[in-house]
Write a structure and sequence with these properties.
The chain is of the alpha+beta class and 351 residues long. It has eight helices and 19 strands. The longest helix has 12 residues.
């Protein structure tokens, strides 16, 4: 997130027939679409995930009890325009079409929800009946749409995370569209990279502290997952946990990304795939460099904030899009949880 632009990175996981995959995202005006990689998400996860630190093990007189202090556990850490109906504008306008890696993408504009549904259906983007009112609501709110599907002959193993850059600092997640194809609950982890700590604006949120947790010496585990589930249930599975908020050097994310061969994680974009304006295309390494420049537009100077937010949302909670805002509390929230309570401590041997 910067004052000039906001980029949504989305890691999409899909099972089933690749020809059945389609992804539709509401957008505001023309956007720039690019490729990212799983290793970016892995790097973000590694430096921000919840790490549980056990209490100091009990000591026994005249003996040294063999206990594993400092054991850790991580928190768990989605081509053609319509014909004109008379003298007015066409019901569906194709703003742009582009091949990005394994994906065929198209940006659409329409003021007619039915015409948009018909265009999507006729071009291989089936919109479930229960999602059509959601699409209609976005149309009536003035949104455009980005539609994306796998190119013919591409398997789901070729899927790469995508990034979608929009102008301005508008930080929201279209949960109403996330509702398509999800079950009773859906788990979502968000990382917000910006110049400060972020929090939900229109959803409740909570944090977990080390004092909330209990360490069980018999299992060498904490009750972190249980406490999290209890807090979520108390808020009707419609709240977000602020899991950590850290000031980090971009190097901490970039280093593991750069340590892998670009060809393992990124796909080159041939010149013929460089969009309607043509272009020379890019190598896998150049695609990776573009990705890192987009993620850290300020370069490697100074530090950035990375806020990790997660939720297990009930389907009913997906009725509203998530809107984020700068947090009132701009202090760091560590991802290390130091547990002070414990049970089942081992007994000292008789002397």
């Amino acid at each position: 997130v910067t004052p000039q632009a906001t980029t949504l990175y989305d890691e999409i996981e899909y099972q089933g027939n690749p020809q059945s995959f389609a992804w539709v995202l509401p957008i505001r005006g023309p956007v720039t679409v690019g490729l990212s990689s799983d290793v970016v998400f892995s790097a973000l996860d590694a430096v921000t995930k919840a790490t549980i630190e056990s209490p100091t093990p009990p000591t026994c007189p005249s003996c040294s009890c063999a206990l594993n202090a400092g054991a850790t556990g991580g928190g768990s850490g989605s081509s053609s325009g319509g014909s004109s109906g008379g003298g007015g504008p066409p019901p569906v306008t194709v703003i742009s079409q582009q091949t990005v890696g394994p994906y065929e993408t198209v940006q659409l504009q329409s003021t007619d929800p039915t015409a948009l549904d018909n265009w999507l259906a006729s071009n291989g983007y089936a919109i479930p009946t229960d999602v059509q009112p959601v699409v209609a609501a976005y149309v009536n709110e003035g949104f455009d749409f980005l539609a994306l599907k796998l190119l013919p002959g591409q398997g789901v193993s070729a899927m790469r995370p995508v990034r979608v850059t929009s102008p301005g600092a508008s930080v929201s997640l279209p949960l109403r569209m996330v509702a398509a194809g999800t079950g009773a609950t859906v788990g979502i982890t968000l990382w917000v990279v910006g110049d400060g700590r972020y929090e939900p604006k229109n959803f409740q949120s909570f944090i977990i502290s080390g004092s909330d947790l209990t360490w069980d010496w018999s299992t060498q585990e904490s009750n972190y997952s249980t406490i999290r589930s209890q807090k979520e249930a108390a808020l009707n599975d419609a709240a977000w946990q602020i899991e950590s908020a850290l000031q980090l050097s971009p190097y901490q994310i970039e280093t593991p990304v750069l340590n892998d061969l670009a060809s393992l994680d990124y796909l080159p974009i041939p010149g013929s795939d460089a969009g309607a304006d043509g272009g020379a295309g890019e190598t896998a390494d150049e695609v990776r460099q573009d990705d890192l420049v987009t993620l850290f537009p300020g370069g490697d100077q100074g530090e950035v904030w990375v806020t990790r937010i997660r939720a297990d949302l009930a389907h009913s909670a997906l009725a509203n899009d998530l809107v984020l805002q700068p947090s009132a509390d701009q202090s760091q929230l560590s991802n290390f949880y130091y547990v002070t309570n414990s049970v089942n401590a081992p007994t000292c041997p008789a002397l």
